[in-house]
Specification:
Strand content of chain B: 5-15%
Helix content of chain B: 40-55%
Distance between the termini of chain C: 40 Å
Largest interface: B-C, 35 and 31 residues
Strand order of the largest sheet of chain B: 1-2-3
Oligomer: heterotrimer
Order of helices and strands of chain C: HHHHHHHHHHHH
Strand content of chain C: under 5%
Number of strands of chain C: 0
Number of helices of chain C: 12
CATH architecture of the largest domain in chain B: Orthogonal Bundle
Structural class of chain B: alpha+beta
Shape of chain B: globular
Helix content of chain C: 55-70%
Radius of gyration of chain C: 20 Å
Radius of gyration of chain B: 21 Å
CATH superfamily of the largest domain in chain B: Cytochrome-c3 Hydrogenase, chain B
Largest sheet of chain C: none
CATH class of the largest domain in chain B: Mainly Alpha
Largest sheet of chain B: 3 strands, antiparallel
Chains: A alpha+beta (147), B alpha+beta (376), C mainly alpha (329)
Chain lengths: 147, 376, 329
């Protein structure tokens, strides 16, 4: 059965089959997308860096400065400060900073938030020349978006 | 004239030289360094030097709460993140006696098996790249991209998923995912036929892998090698069967076993595992129950009763086990991670002795090492 | 020889240099585009229309880089190797007939000259690897030598088989014998030797091995030996090796075209001319690229076993067979 000549011929035919596979792929359309000219659709649950959710009624943040996210964060990258203003039932955030250089995008902060004040942004093409570019001030971001 | 593919240690000459393979060598896929003592092109001794990407994951586990450590688990072996999260979540659930709702368990199985396929596809491509074939890598990545799109749709990330939570899942799967997964299993089977024609049956590949790098079942037991490595040596060791976890006992699937123990056997085991994973996914999709995906009573701060807990899963590279020692605090006393790649690497020194350099690299590729998994 | 002969020769040599340079640069583009198509990607698109200026951009980048000569290397041999590696391509093309009259120097032992100069390529790669004093490069140099010794033999045996059929070493004469329809090509001369297609396959395999192309790219096995003999080369030194690979493919494919595929002869008997030569040659070049992007690399001893155990016996058999056939008919 296993004659050497038969084996050589079978081996040669397996190479021809392989070449047949690649030449069929040769005439099929591209599967890649040339990035700066076109980009893929992002999925709804994309996890970017975190962002504050705006309260549709007041236009301000929903954050009550409870610091749950600060405690939940495994990498210590969130710093929240808040005060209780006169005439308000609960505290509101005065300072909400994220050190994105440390963030591992785990989403623990979003999950623990009791008022759902945090969400993932859809910002993926971040680039900067210094570390400081990634010390994000989320309250400021919220305000600039307001305008 | 015939050149031996292997010469025994006694026949080596005294004139050896040291060749540093890595930490920046194209074939080591990361920062593994192997110190080779060579006699010409034959390897007299191969000494793996791990530790270039050591990140102290176990120590980090002892310094943060269970929930805070959860994202770390998906970063130990970035190619099979689901399995690693599953093991850690499972260990905590077992200790805290949390019952996971059935829908969550089924979704865990589906996503785990998708992750296994994507991991095997990366291995397939990278292995062929080690052997000098570049095109199969990109075909495999094309298929893997479809899995990543599916998983990104439900988890929000493409590699370090962190999708499981103590008591269930991060969120429920949507109809798009279920339909996409069904489409994927239908799409993947013909692709496997294409890989068979292009790669598996190829005479060059067969000549390079058959009877190269034999690993006996004995050697696997000695070094604790698991996963496709031990199954390619004829031992039907699969955690999904030996220590059943999650809802795996409810599915019909075979454990592919090849007794030869050579690189080809390990190759065939992995290719067959893709088929079996597709089978499991199809069954799980058919049986997927309705209901919640999160257990009702999960404490906000998890404190495990004092004791010693272990949970093992079959990750893409073998048995991954998490052992937690708790002393009734919200931070574990000790977290031990049993990584398959480390055990699989330890047999390399013995297995590669006397082999030629390209064969030794084929052997390394067939072990499917993920370097961060070795160092942890 | 009349007065215009030296001028004609000079023009031809300039033409060949331009041809080699153009091919070496643009086959890189073809290879990248071809690989991209096989893998269903677009390939180079950004520099110029469809990335057509990419080779020029690459060359400019390589030229602007520092040429590093490692302090421990043999500096003279290290610099000599890239020069040597390009020369066989230039020399061999001088005797290749592109058309009936389109040949730089038509000498009656053209075939011998092609194979004599073709071997310099190996020596250049070996010199480069040896002079680098890098362990990976030395392993690669040793591999190249044993590989080429092994493949030179079946290749020459095949060529001798062919010589028995043609009876001449004049390349232009060989092409003229293959005039008419395509079954007059040496490839299909089954009356002279029924195993002629097999000899062509052997010649083709040997050509791949001689030019160090995948699946026989032992010299530059990037997943084993980093970059093999070229590990220590930087800038244009590396660039020249890279271009020489393509130049040598062009030479190999040209020789295959002349010997087996009827050179500049038309396959349908009319409108013969250089265009047919180029068409056939570039088809062979494409098939070389096609093979590279399909197969994994052979194992080193597998490669030698293939040569000694299969190719040499088969080519010896064809040699004996065609001599018997010649005697009988």
């Amino acid at each position: 059965m296993k004659s050497p000549i038969g084996e050589v011929i079978r081996g040669f035919m397996s190479l021809v089959t392989g070449m047949g596979v690649t030449i069929r792929q040769f005439f099929k359309p591209n599967v890649t997308v040339q990035y700066p000219h076109a980009s893929l659709k992002m999925t709804g649950r994309y996890r970017g860096h975190i962002e504050l959710v705006r309260d549709p009624a007041t236009g301000l943040s929903l954050c009550i400065a409870c610091k749950s996210c600060e405690k939940a964060c495994p990498s210590d990258c969130i710093a929240v400060e808040g005060v209780k203003r006169d005439g308000e039932k609960r505290k509101s955030a005065t300072d909400f900073k994220v050190d994105f250089t440390k963030c591992s995008l785990c989403g623990s902060c979003v999950e623990v938030c009791p008022t759902d004040a945090l969400k993932f942004s859809r910002n993926y093409n971040l680039a900067g020349t210094s570390r400081e570019a990634y010390y994000l001030d989320l309250l400021k971001r919220l305000q600039t978006e307001n305008k | 004239m015939s050149i031996p593919s292997f010469i025994p240690h006694e026949k080596m000459s005294d004139e050896t030289f040291v060749l540093n393979l890595g930490p920046q060598h194209p074939a080591t896929h990361g920062v593994l360094r192997v110190k080779l003592t060579m006699d010409g092109e034959y390897i007299a001794r191969a000494e793996p030097v791990p530790g270039y990407i050591h990140r102290m994951h176990e120590k980090m586990g002892e310094n943060r709460t269970y929930a805070q450590f959860l994202p770390n688990t998906s970063r130990i072996d970035y190619l099979s993140a689901m399995h690693y999260t599953h093991a850690f979540v499972g260990a905590v659930e077992r200790a805290a006696r949390i019952t996971v709702p059935p829908r969550a368990e089924y979704v865990r199985v589906i996503t785990s098996e998708l992750n296994r396929i994507s991991s095997h596809l990366v291995w397939f491509g990278a292995f062929l790249l080690d052997l000098g074939g570049f095109t199969p890598l990109l075909y495999a990545f094309d298929d893997r991209e479809k899995i990543l799109d599916l998983l990104e749709g439900i988890t929000g990330s493409r590699l370090t998923y962190c999708y499981y939570r103590f008591g269930g899942l991060y969120n429920d799967v949507d109809a798009d995912f279920l339909k996409g997964t069904r489409d994927f299993t239908a799409y993947m089977r013909p692709r496997l036929d294409m890989y068979r024609a292009l790669v598996t049956d190829n005479i060059i590949l067969r000549k390079r892998l058959e009877s190269i790098g034999p690993i006996s079942a004995e050697m696997c037991r000695k070094y604790g090698a698991t996963g496709p490595v031990i199954r390619g040596s004829g031992v039907a060791y699969d955690v999904r069967r030996i220590e059943p976890y999650s809802v795996y006992p409810e599915f019909q699937f075979d454990i592919p076993v090849y007794p030869e123990g050579d690189c080809m056997a390990r190759y065939l085991v992995r290719m067959e595992e893709i088929v079996q994973s597709l089978r499991i996914i199809d069954q799980a999709l058919d049986q997927l129950p309705e209901g919640p995906v999160m257990a009702e009573k999960v404490p906000r701060v998890i404190k495990l009763p004092p004791g010693d807990y272990c949970y093992a899963v079959e990750a893409a590279r073998g048995r991954f086990a998490v052992r937690i020692v708790s002393d009734n605090k919200d931070i574990p006393y000790r977290v031990k991670l049993r990584a398959p790649s480390f055990s699989n690497l330890s047999l390399y020194e013995e297995a590669s002795q006397g082999m030629m350099l390209p064969d030794a690299l084929a052997l390394m590729g067939s072990l499917d090492l993920v370097i961060p998994d070795i160092d942890r | 020889m009349n007065i215009s002969e030296p001028i004609r020769l000079l023009l031809f040599l300039a033409g060949i240099m331009a041809f080699v340079g153009f091919n070496a640069a643009y086959l890189v583009w073809v290879e990248r585009k071809g690989a991209a198509r096989f893998q269903r990607r677009p390939g180079p698109t950004e520099v110029g229309f469809a990335g057509l200026l990419q080779p020029i951009a690459d060359a400019l980048k390589l030229l602007s880089k520092q040429v590093i000569v490692p302090p421990t290397s043999d500096a003279i041999l290290f610099r000599l190797a890239p020069v040597l590696v390009m020369s066989p391509a230039l020399m061999c093309l001088a005797v290749i007939p592109f058309g009936e009259t389109l040949v730089a120097r038509n000498i009656n032992i053209g075939l011998v000259m092609v194979f004599a100069f073709g071997s310099i390529n190996v020596m250049a790669i070996m010199l480069g690897g040896w002079a680098s004093r890098n362990k990976y490069a030395v392993i690669s140099a040793a591999r190249v030598v044993s590989q080429d010794v092994a493949y030179e033999i079946p290749m020459l045996l095949v060529v001798i088989t062919l010589l028995m059929v043609t009876g001449t070493m004049d390349l232009n004469q060989i092409v003229r014998q293959q005039a008419g329809w395509f079954w007059h090509w040496n490839l299909f001369k089954l009356t002279a030797n029924p195993l002629m297609p097999v000899t062509f396959v052997i010649f083709y395999i040997c050509m791949l091995a001689e030019t160090n192309r995948a699946p026989f790219d032992m010299a530059e096995a990037e997943s084993e030996l980093v970059a093999g003999a070229f590990t220590e080369y930087a800038g244009m030194g590396f660039g020249v090796f890279f271009m020489a690979e393509y130049a040598n493919i062009v030479v190999g494919c040209s020789v295959a075209t002349v010997l087996f595929l009827g050179g500049w002869q038309s396959p349908i008997g009319v409108w013969s001319g250089p265009w047919w030569f180029l068409l056939k040659m570039y088809f062979l070049v494409f098939s070389v690229i096609w093979i590279r992007w399909t197969f994994p690399r052979t194992q080193f001893y597998g490669l030698l076993n293939l040569s000694w155990k299969i190719l040499i016996p088969v080519s010896l058999f064809t040699l004996v067979l065609s001599s018997i056939m010649l005697k009988l008919f």
